[in-house]
Request: fold
Amino acid sequence: MVLAELIDGLGVLSAIFFGLGLILTAIEIYAPGFGVWGIAGITCFIIGIIVTADTLLEALVLMMILLAVLGILFIIILHSISKGKLPKSMVLESSMKKEDGYISTNDMKYFLKKCGITLTVLRPAGTVDFDGVKLDVVSENEFIPKGTKVEVIKVEGRRIVVRRAVEEQNN
Reply:
């Protein structure tokens, strides 16, 4: 009986705040960010409760009901995430594999003395393929055409310096 009285007593203003709170909370779920939409949605819920309640006790009861509903929704969302039931648009399915030319190491010293083929013209910067791994490199003070075999002579952090391979220099 009390719940029916509460629903009957909802005014237009409180309904607007509750609806706005629902919309803002839904935006929070799908919009990347740090919680501005969610905080605004919860604030709208609280304002809607304050506008609806006649007494402090009634406001506290409504807050507890709201927190319980939000808690249940949170548990349902966590359960959906753990079961993999999220929409495909929210899940990144591609991966960066070594076969596709991606590397995850920051230690470029591995490529020191390695040979590769230029994929672009080096004037002096360009791209070289080292056994399927594509890297941005810099040539040692020279123009090197596309398709030339080069050797890594120096690695400084992420900067890789190359020159024509010895057999290329003899040709």
Observations:
- The CA atoms of residues 49 and 169 lie 80 Å apart.
- The mean pLDDT is 82.
- The helical segments are 2-9, 12-30, 36-52, 56-82, 166-170.
